Amino acid sequence: MRLGFSIARTRSLGAIITVIFLGGCTSGGSAAPPSGSSAGGMGSDVGGMANVATGGGSNGGAPLSTSAGATNAAGATDAGGGVSSAAGATNGGMGGAAGAANDPGVPQQDYASKVNPWIESNKGRWFFSTPAAMPFGMVKLTPHSKNQDQGGGGYNYSVPTALGFCHVHGWMSTGLCVMPTSGGNFNVTSGEDGWKSNYSHATETVTPGYHKLHLDKYNIDVELTTTNRVGFSRYTFDQTGSADIVINLGGPAGPATMRNGSLTQISPTELNGYYDRTNGIWGGPTSVRTFFVIMLDKPASKLTTYQNTYGSSGYLTFSSVTQGEVIQMKAAISYTSLDNARANLQAELNHWDFELVRKAAHDEWNRMLNKIQVTGGTPDQQVKFYTDLWHVLLGREMTEDVNGAYPDYTNGKGGNDNVLKVRNVPLNVDGTPKFHIYNSDAFWLTMWNLNTLWGLAWPEVLDSVANSLLEMGRVGGAMDRGPNLGGYSHIMTGAPASMVVAAAYETGAYSFDPMAAFQQIKKDQSVGGIEGVDDFYVSHGWMQGNAGETLEDSFEDWCAAQMANKLGLTADYTEFMRRSKGWQNVYNPDSKFIFPKDANGNWTSSDPLSGAGWVEANSWQATWFTPHEVNKLVQLMGGSDTYCTKLDSAFKMSVAQDFAFGYGSGTISYSNQPGCADAHLFNYAGKPWLSQYWVRQVQAKTYGGVTPDLAVQGTCGSKPILDVTSPIFDTVRIALNPKYYPGGQFVITTKNNSAANMYIQSATLNGQPLDNSWFLHSQFSAGGELDLTLGPQPNQSWGVKQLPPSDSNPLPN
């Protein structure tokens, strides 16, 4: 169960980083492959998001591998800033979002109108495509057409049928599902089949903060928008007669099941109640109560409740509505109490102006998306880029109320006791929470993507996430890999939260007490902690029978060592550094692969394509996972030529499959986290032109799709670095948050950028020649400009003067 990651999840979160710095990709053209490399993967769309990859561990972590920017499957932008297949043209969008990106001298763009929520929704998850939501919002109000979690669950473009409109779409969170109907044409005894309705994409509009569609069965226009904790629905009835709104509180819904529903009518315009979220498919607390308050702007004639095997639900009846009449509904939720649900409603939505809320949501998305402004590339690439950024800011949810109250179901010992305890986030002087408490799928190996990306453009998010994890450690006993609604899921392996916290600390994106934070990391990575290491690992250096966990634990130990060193904790630094070299014990010099070993030191596998003894990987894919000691692996393999030839051959063998395989299959796979740094590793081995080539191929072939079916598809060190590869956009402007970074902005520009011109010829950083394929994060945070000149042939003398630092090739003081 803990290994339940889906490719769709990886795609949505992982397809961004590579592009960040990178520039836009260009269709058509061809480039000369580097010496010794075939042009196998190059087709008509050679571009690639490119990458100044913001990357991996300081003394040696390889960067991420993602791209972004995309396009709509079939539509245009409507006047409200959304993708609408009915529109057929771009009509300006809302524009002028409130709140500049950080630099008042840079005009704000309507990037929210470039986001296409339909992309890859056919393969997404319950929480993947939720347009009517705020960044990290508790409420994600959207129709679901497939009642399942993975493989296209939730909103699915290929199934234009609305089964209901659930207010909660998150990581093992779900519920408060409603459905407007007309003419009494529904049957609650059949559940969703008794009230579902088809709709047409031709009359559908989706954009960040807003969703509109027409229910054909009932002849009702449904419009949705939200604040952080309140869903706002507007129903326009196209025919005269009676109407009902079903409030479904019982039954399976995506990743969990609703049970024990309670619905009470306070007045003709107000209801409240609760239900229990149970049966989370990846674990979590046994039962999580969700409280809600519903308000209507038209009095209901009556409330009828009904029972099924899961408990109570109900429906509101309006005895008479006229053609063109509008009924609006607001629904606020809380995971702590009815009183706090009502407080959320009163604080965030004390009026009935739907357009005001819709605009505020659109403006907030624009404020966040404007932190990274790009020019160049194709329209498709820009759409994909901002769609991927949208997912990065959408895919997890706050769980605390406006007053800072949050649910705690932990036992204080790293597990769950399934008893609700209400706790409070520390508050700012204005009474707002200092940070969010997140519900999130695992942070497993997010140093390749989220840790770095948040740290670049949204350091306040990285800080908030780190504080959330530390709060869980303080209250619950450990920082979970995938915290779920106030409890532990224990999904995946290792202690990835440690790397989130270490990344925040080392890059300066933190407001927590670093000494207390390190003590939590040390606890989590000790025997008996959530990392899972045992006495054998500590004494011998490897996890018995599992090479994947050995590599993860070694890197996490290295991250802990860097933090200890900066804090002056010499003994802790020495011990964690010793442990961080344990991966060398599972390197097989005969095959030049890493393989799992048993307790007696015997290899338990000799097949590099076998997933046995790995975590969602195999030896071909994950032998390269030594981000803190890349140079040491290069030495063990016999030098740069051997290392690069082997890695290059792995890419060539994966071209036909677009570098995307199922877990544990194939030689290079960008469908999952373990391989997301591979293309950048040539930088560390002295052949950066191979990184430039393969990064572009991966972007174009693996992350370049822009249809509902395609799209896929960290820094921890004391001196974090950023890798440089081949950009696809002409310019990338990152607004720096002055609370953390003093530089104002960092701008990447390219000259001669095209699909054919993928190779870096020369570079300057702040006007001075840059002869390395990396630079310090501190140079980024100080602000400045990186200028890259590109060409069609590799310049094999650029980027090799001083290789990116790894622990075996330390950064000079």
Give a concise summary.
With 813 residues, this protein is of the alpha+beta class. Helix content is 23%, strand content 23%.
Name some characteristics of this structure:
7-stranded antiparallel beta sheet, disordered N terminus, 34 strands, 11-stranded antiparallel beta sheet
Plain-language structure description:
With 813 residues, the chain is of the alpha+beta class. The strands form 8 sheets. It has an 11-stranded antiparallel beta sheet with strand order 1-2-9-10-11-12-20-17-16-15-14. A 7-stranded antiparallel beta sheet has the order 3-4-6-7-13-19-18, with no helix packed on it. Strands 21-29-30-34-31-32 form a 6-stranded mixed beta sheet. The model is unreliable at 1-102 and 709-715 (pLDDT under 50).
Helical content, roughly? 10-25%
How widely separated are the two ends? 45 Å
Low-pLDDT segments, ≥5 res: 1-102, 709-715
Structural class: alpha+beta
Number of strands: 34
Shape: globular
Strands of the widest sheet, in order across it, are 1-2-9-10-11-12-20-17-16-15-14
Mean pLDDT: 87
What is the topology?
Blueprint: H1 7-14, H2 17-21, E1 76-77, E2 83-84, E3 132-133, E4 140-143, E5 161-162, E6 165-170, E7 173-182, E8 197-198, E9 205-207, E10 210-215, E11 220-226, E12 230-237, E13 241-248, E14 251-253, E15 256-267, E16 270-278, E17 287-296, E18 302-308, E19 311-321, E20 326-334, H3 338-348, H4 354-369, E21 372-375, H5 379-392, E22 397-398, E23 405-410, E24 416-424, E25 438-439, H6 450-457, H7 459-476, H8 496-507, H9 514-524, H10 535-540, H11 547-566, H12 570-580, E26 587-588, E27 593-594, H13 619-622, H14 630-637, H15 640-654, H16 681-684, H17 688-702, E28 721-723, E29 731-735, E30 745-751, E31 759-765, E32 768-769, E33 774-776, H18 777-781, E34 784-791
Parallel strand pairs: 30-34
Antiparallel strand pairs: 1-2, 2-9, 3-4, 4-6, 5-8, 6-7, 7-13, 9-10, 10-11, 11-12, 12-20, 13-19, 14-15, 15-16, 16-17, 17-20, 18-19, 21-29, 22-25, 23-24, 26-27, 28-33, 29-30, 31-32, 31-34
